[in-house]
Every structure is written in C-alpha cells, then in structure tokens.
C-alpha cells in the first residue's frame, strides 16, 4: 500500500508543468570550473553548439579551466577530429564569471561542485531566486539525494515552482570522452524537466540512462563497491596493486583496473561516495575501506594530487 501511495504521489508531482517550458535551450550555465564542470561546458559548446557561461567563485580556477579547454581543443584539431574553425567557434561560445547572479538569463544550469551536501543545498537555494521561472536546475551529483537538493529550493514543502525543475545530469568522467550520462529525478521533478534534460544531453552527444533517486543511483551503486572491494583486497594482502588491476583489465576487458580508476576519479571522491552509500543504506557491505580513509588523511588523492595508488 505504501508503494502504491508513493507512486501516486510521484506521478502527481511529475505531472506538474513548468511555468513556461523552454522549447529550446539557448544558453547553458555551468557552476564549477573544475575537471567535471569544464568538461561539461566544453562539450556543450562543441557538440550542442550553445553559448555557455562558466561560473566559479575563484578567478584562478576559471583561468585554469579555460586554459585546459584550449589545450583539449588544440589536441582535437591536431588529431583532425575537428577543424580549426570548429575549435575557434566552440571557444568563442565559452564565457565566464565569478558572479552567480549572471545566471539569470540561462535556460539550463548544471552545478558541478564538490560532493558536499550543504554546499549544493546552498547553491540551489540561490538558483531558485536567481534563475528564470523556466530554467532547468541540474546537479552533477554522483551520490547526493536529488529530492533533498530540490527541497532546498522551496520555501515550504508545497512550493514546487523551482523544485519541479530540479534534476541530476550525472556525467561520466572524463566528459569529453565518456558517452554515458545518468538522468536522476527527485520526488518533485516534473516529467517535462526529465524530457528536456534527456533531450539536451542527447544534443550534447550523450547516451542517457534514467535512474531512481536511490543512494549511489546506478553507476556508483555498482562501481564504488567494486573499487572499495579492490582496496580491501590490497589492504588485506590478497594481491598487490598491479595484480589487482591486471586481472581485471586482462580478465574482464575493462580499460583500466579498479585502483587506477580510483586514482583518476579521486580517492577523496570515492571515499565520499562510499560514506553516502553506507550512511544512507545502513548496510555494512558499503563500509568504506580503512585504506581509503588513510589515503585521504595523507593527502594521497590520486592523479590530481600526484600520488594515489600510483605515482603521477
């Protein structure tokens, strides 16, 4: 009976139309100029061919991100994946700002900041007042509840004006290469928001998979326990790091082993997601490996810090 009631409630919220649904996404906003945010912005500018406003509270982060964008575009031109004209046009579509208020004219905004619930809740509370009444408010979260993020936009639980436009577009890393994107809807998310998010991600050249708002969603619910178990095998001496990675690469045909993949994702990100899975489900099978915690304490965060399971 509870499941039926929940499903009925979900359908009622999903049918809530947006005030003035945008027929087309004419401008995108991206919050966070790190690896994920920059990747999303660049792919949108290159593939979807829409103007993109990149927001970060640190000008140094924006400068670093745009410099990396230039390098990626140069590489694509040298590999003859795109023409120089294509690269120039894509780069011209990228603008930046340190002011959240500048997002007032975007039709779609994607938040890509660290996995800190309070930070995301604060951002979405601001977006609810800054952005136009038709704008889609998307998060790139890999583990935090979309329903809770959407609730941060509402003055009270019955206020769905902004909450119905909140969704997750969880892109895979690195964004310019990986085709997959998870579309996760919260309890409040409208069907129109889901349809618009799927259509825009497809315009970016991505293949969308829909997921329920459950801890870890699909990708990390499957991937992170796999990585965590590999770390446990290492810390308990079942195998050396090279053997662990090699057996998975050569035995299951994955492009990189779980420990190398953890380095590329970020050890701190892996730990944060495992904590969410463990705390949200209460299931001991999601307990983070002790070695993950120790590596984060040591500042060994993987490729981004120069040291993780491997040295970079």
TrEMBL record:
Marked site (Important for catalytic activity) residue numbers: 170
3-hydroxyacyl-CoA dehydrogenase NAD binding domain mapped to chain residues: 27-208
One matching Pfam family: 3HCDH
All residue ranges annotated as the 3-hydroxyacyl-CoA dehydrogenase C-terminal domain in the record: 216-312
Substrates-to-products reaction catalysed: a 4-saturated-(3S)-3-hydroxyacyl-CoA = a (3E)-enoyl-CoA + H2O; a (3S)-3-hydroxyacyl-CoA = a (2E)-enoyl-CoA + H2O
Binding site for NAD(+): 32-37, 56, 115, 120, 142, 173, 304
GO molecular function, one term: oxidoreductase activity, acting on the CH-OH group of donors, NAD or NADP as acceptor
UniProt keywords, alphabetically: NAD, Oxidoreductase
Biological process terms in GO annotation: fatty acid metabolic process
Pathway entry: Lipid metabolism; fatty acid beta-oxidation
Family statement: In the central section; belongs to the 3-hydroxyacyl-CoA dehydrogenase family. Belongs to the 3-hydroxyacyl-CoA dehydrogenase family.
Protein name: 3-hydroxybutyryl-CoA dehydrogenase
